[in-house]
Amino acid sequence: MFISSQNTPPCFKDFTLVMPAVAVGNVGQLAVDLIVSTLNMSRVGYMHTDCLVPMVGNNPYTTCKEDADELHTSAEVYTAAETKLAVLQIRSPIIQNKAKTFRQLLVSWIKTSGFSRTIVLSSSHAYQRDDQQLQGTPLRYLITPALLKLCEGEVKELAWKEMEQVPPFPGITDANIESRFSIPGGGITKGLFTDSCAEDLPLAVLLLFCSEGNNIPEAFALVNHVNDWLHLLDNPRQGPNQWRIPSSWKLLFGSGIPPALF
Questions:
Q1: Which member of 16, 90, 176, 211 has the lowest number of beta carbons within 10 Å of its beta carbon?
Q2: At what angle are helices 99-113 and 189-198 packed, to 10 degrees?
Q3: What is the H or E stretch that residue 216 is in?
Q4: What is the Rg, in whole angstroms, of the alpha carbon atoms belonging to the chain?
């Protein structure tokens, strides 16, 4: 699945992996864009799979004329070796009926690569929240038992809000009906979390309730949430919120109205 773009394949052992789920508002993908752009991460390879809609385009993180023509694909891996951070950016939707296969491929790659932990950035439909989810912050987290063993103290210190379990039928509370996790609009988020629990993988999901539209503010909220844990921007001269917006965001809403129309 992973194809290295270097002569010597990278070693991911003990790295932290951050990846998005293709979900409502593309919030996870936008947050990953900010991480890659700000940390000036190096591309080390790409994912070769028939589970994603194929696509190719120019360098989304170009900083000069020389690297603007580089070709980039639908799923690529970036690293910041000094901080032992790896990022998988996914830029296209998962092909219908291949979500389960894609999850299995991801779990297999994560296990064989030796990542110390995986953090999935995701989102869920704000309008489908349960009553209890309307209170407080729109940010939630889920964590597998394998990762909780390693960082239970950190999670308690952060005082984050865990994703609530909800009844399968809204408004019906019955002791005989078991509540469950529901992440509408979250793509493979729930399935990947469930698979990781079954495979004893150290994985966490950080998600945000949102609606479709201009989701740049939500992306900043989510990436700042990640930064509270990973301390990606710890340099006091840089400041805690100095995320670098990638050049590709100039075309986030298209290229504008052609002047020839008028």
A1: 176
A2: 50
A3: helix 216-230
A4: 19
